[in-house]
Model the fold of this input.
Amino acid sequence: MTTIYDIAKKTGFSITTVSKVLNNYTDVSEKTKKKILEAVEEMGYYPNSHARSLMTKKSWTIGVVFMENLGVGIKHPFFNAVIESFKQRAEQFGYDMLFVSRNIINEKKSYLDHFRHRGVDGVVVVCSISDDPEVKKLMESPLPTVIIDMHSSKSSVVYSDNSYGSVLAVDHLYSLGHRKIAHIYGHQETYAGTERLKGFIKALKKHNLDIPKSYIVNGGFFSMESGEQAMKELLSLDDPPTAVYAAGDNMAFGAIKAIREKGLSVPDDISVIGYDDIDIAQHIAPPLTTVKQNMDQLGSTAADLLLDQINDKTKLNKAVTIPVELIIRESCKALKTDE
Done:
């Protein structure tokens, strides 16, 4: 069985340096880390978890919580991609993931109580719901935490530049000649929903667009069904929009369905933009123009923030904003000059 001594011998580094890399200490160069981690993978090194826990006084376990209102949890393509990236990064340094239920031996416990019971080293929360009391308990506790997709001053957080993404979407539609631009917004209990709506309104002011209130429609918790219903409301207007920006790809898919059922075409009659750039967005007909969230960077950055807290044995309140970009495909079209 491969040992830490074998890794040291192969790489030419000291046992101390190898140990520091395996325990994610920050005083080792990235070049050294890369060489040692490559050797670890190549040689199939796997430390004894019990011995390692005794030596380091860590459980080498990270708790994972999903807080969202659709009830799909990790099945949602956004959450799935983000947590997979987080998992891959954490596993490089020997951590396992613990996905929790709040029931322990048939007794309802808070997430904080559960994590204390299981002795996790830290917790990642993928959270679309603001002001949830369970999440607040975690953020206010001494336990290292990182929250993905929400803003807070009480915990380390990682989120996309949601507001700017909306500006990119409206800028693009405006450049195509659209002036009657509607927005299907996400639920205002969610951080993403509120920020994307703020960005939409900011973009309207930027371009001096005075649209009717009926052009801003609630799309609920980012589902295809809620997007379809919101689009039906827009299509029932006496003067419907020529373009629609939906605050999530699933809502955009629902909007496209409603447009087609009305006998209209995307993008010939109505242009549609989504948000997220989930994998299927490029494969639907027409391929969806959308604001891309960098899900890999969201997950890996969150992992690094949490591991830094665990290694430094301190709670950090650091916020990191991940840039977004507009992915232009075929669901948007310029208006004819005579329109």
Observations:
- The CA atoms of residues 156 and 317 lie 4 Å apart.
